[in-house]
């Protein structure tokens, strides 16, 4: 997750993070440990997935927390810019269901197979 956030920040993105098990201070400590400087004006921690996805271009799932499987993604989708992208870095989500909602789904590290989304 650290590497992806760093790459997005280096590309000039505004990064909004929701992680139920990590604090912003912990994340910043981890960045510093790896010698990475973070522009905190573009690195935001939120209190909910709804807050993180509001006005977003994409959702990126980088951890396997069980709660990520049960979110009301249809509600997150309505708050996002369109087209709305979802990158599943752990291949833990229902890609077909997410595509029915309207997401353009990409499974990181998984090839696209007939009848499956990637």
TrEMBL record:
Pfam families: UDPG_MGDP_dh_C. One of its GO terms (cellular component) is nucleus. Residues 1-95 form the UDP-glucose/GDP-mannose dehydrogenase C-terminal domain. It catalyses: UDP-alpha-D-glucose + 2 NAD(+) + H2O = UDP-alpha-D-glucuronate + 2 NADH + 3 H(+). It comes from the Eukaryota. GO terms for molecular function: NAD binding; UDP-glucose 6-dehydrogenase activity. GO terms for biological process: glycosaminoglycan biosynthetic process. PANTHER family: UDP-GLUCOSE 6-DEHYDROGENASE, UDP-GLUCOSE DEHYDROGENASE/UDP-MANNAC DEHYDROGENASE. This is UDP-glucose/GDP-mannose dehydrogenase C-terminal domain-containing protein. It comes from Strombidinopsis acuminata.
